[in-house]
Design goal:
Layout: H1 2-12, H2 24-52, H3 78-92, H4 98-123, H5 132-152, E1 158-159, E2 168-169, E3 174-175, E4 181-182, E5 186-188, E6 196-198, H6 215-236, H7 242-261, H8 264-270, H9 281-299, H10 308-325, H11 332-335, H12 337-360, H13 372-378, H14 383-403
């Protein structure tokens, strides 16, 4: 909204300073500051409201140290993240940008699923919350929407590679070679020299015209990624500050990918895929990072509020959509390595337990407890130490992910 206002003032009234809103870097910085202020200043008011409404966490007895003290802590704090993200986004982004529209839909969609789940747990006194099948249906529904839009919408394109380098004339402010944009299902494979994969090639064996049916591959992949990452974020949200901190690190790295992929000059210099109009997502990412950091102010040990599924499912959905939009979804196991490890620990634990129970009559475990962070709690590590070390791992993984811009 402010973007359009200042664009109008700049074109019609030529007021000094109004043109600065045309720059993504300026709007991103402003979005970060604004979301940080909203989440820290008004976050306290939201926490007080949740406490007055007796929206407290019901803690299951898992035999973990300090667990009982968390009972009654306000939950549904994901509302802070959602509000602090959407207000700057609505004010500072181009709301007709297809990527921004998708991210807003994702935020509201996953936030609603998480809110319903938390509501059932708290007010209906059902510890199981929303049934798993309905969560999956919601995640699949979002995957269908995102996958269909990214595949069919004419505004989602990439620049075809060209042997002619792109140069920028600073004197005339012109680009020597305009990009050739096209619809494509090409994505990026990390750590490889020829680092592009076309999903359509998977069904090349079907014969001529296979490109027309690439959506049969692309959309299910999008559904799988959104479901996996949102569940990974949900599992990671088990101790104070873990999900918010690791997510902020991963999203910040995605912001770098988004900025360079949406910039014609930088993408040409780095010889990476140029994705027109994707740079606008940098403003959304800045607002999202600010909201996560502001939330972390209250969620760090000892937590004054928990994000609940309202926050964790939203975080996972946003990260997944960002990675898919910027064609970096295959980098997610590295970039979101913490989420991946948490998911994998649960899968391994459950699978091994069932296998040993069927084979030997007694179930055995790989970890003392899953998800992985509970394993370290059982080993006697304080949760603040676990969180700090997981953050360090997340930073290392983010650095490795960023290095892939040139390491191939």
């Amino acid at each position: 909204m402010l973007y359009y206002l200042f664009e109008y003032l700049d074109k019609t009234m030529d007021i000094p300073g109004t043109g600065v809103f045309q720059y993504i870097t300026f709007r991103s910085a402003l979005a970060l500051i604004l979301s940080l202020m909203i989440s820290t200043i008004y976050g306290k008011k939201i926490i007080t409201f949740l406490r007055n409404q007796q929206v407290g966490e019901t803690v299951r007895e898992l035999g973990l140290e300090g667990q009982t003290q968390k009972a009654g802590t306000p939950t549904m704090g994901g509302l802070i993240i959602i509000i602090a993200t959407l207000i700057p986004v609505i004010l500072l982004t181009k709301l007709n940008n297809i990527y921004i529209i998708l991210l807003i839909v994702t935020t509201l969609w996953m936030g609603t699923i998480g809110f319903i789940d938390d509501y059932i747990k708290i007010f209906k006194k059902d510890k199981q919350g929303l049934k798993g099948v309905f969560k999956v249906i919601g995640q699949v529904g979002l995957g269908l929407i995102v996958g269909s839009v990214l595949y069919f919408n004419p505004g989602v394109t990439i620049r075809e590679r060209s042997n002619t380098p792109i140069t920028f004339n600073q004197t005339q402010s012109t680009i020597s070679q305009a990009p050739t944009e096209s619809k494509s299902t090409v994505t990026t494979i990390p750590f490889m020299k020829n680092n592009e994969l076309d999903y359509a090639k998977i069904i090349e064996w079907t014969g001529d015209g296979y490109e027309n049916w690439a959506w049969l591959v692309f959309i299910p992949i999008v559904i799988f990624i959104i479901t996996a990452v949102s569940n990974g974020a949900n599992l990671t949200d088990g101790i104070d500050g873990l999900a918010a901190g690791t997510s902020a690190i991963s999203v910040l790295a995605l912001g770098i990918f988004t900025f360079v992929s949406g910039n014609l000059i930088l993408s040409s210099y780095l010889n990476i895929m140029y994705i027109p109009n994707s740079g606008e997502m940098t403003v959304f990412i800045s607002a999202f990072v600010g909201a996560l950091i502001g939330f972390l102010w209250y969620n760090s040990y000892p937590a004054s509020v928990f994000m609940g599924d309202t926050g964790s499912l939203t975080i996972g959905g946003i990260i997944a959509v960002l990675a898919i939009s910027v064609r970096k979804e295959m980098l997610l196991p590295v970039l979101c390595g913490i989420f991946f490890a948490e998911n994998l620990s649960v899968i391994l634990q459950v699978s091994y337990f069932k296998y040993t129970k069927n084979r030997y009559g007694e179930g055995k475990r790989i970890f003392l407890m899953s998800p992985l962070h509970h394993h370290y709690q059982k080993k006697g590590y304080h949760e603040s130490k676990i969180v700090t070390r997981f953050w360090i791992v997340a930073i290392l993984l983010a650095i490795v992910s960023i290095v892939t811009l040139k390491m191939r």
